[in-house]
Amino acid sequence: MIDVNYIAVVVSAVAAMALGFFWYGPIFGKQWVAYMGWSESDMAEARAKGMAKSYSLMIVSTLLMSYLLANGIALFAVAYPTDEPLSTGLVFGMWSWLAFVVPVTLSSVIWEGKPWGYWFLTAGYYLVSLSMMGTILALWV
Fold first, then answer.
1. Res 6: pLDDT
2. How much is the pLDDT for 3?
3. Which end of the chain has fewer CB atoms at under 10 Å, N or C?
4. Where are the domains of the chain?
5. pTM of the entire predicted model
């Protein structure tokens, strides 16, 4: 059984959600909405419907991602021991991004016709997010 620091899991998930708030809000929000092809009326309609279900699902999925990342980092640390937990978390987060996020998100460009800018914006969020989460988790192992 792998020992997981559940506080670190929650902290890294909260950090990823906070990053998402800023990334898809004040930093790149207008570009993201444009890439999605949404109008102001689409945004107003989404706000009127309420976002509780969407945020709830995102919280659960981010907690799951953080928990699984923590397990992966723990296994990685056993296989490749180092005195540098910072680099372990950062590297594992980046490899996770390259192995899982990049291939999956490329389908949005290849099959869904989204522009490359959309892919860079979304993939960039996950690169920063997984690297940040990996760093937090590795430092708290």
1. 96
2. 85
3. N
4. 6-139
5. 0.90
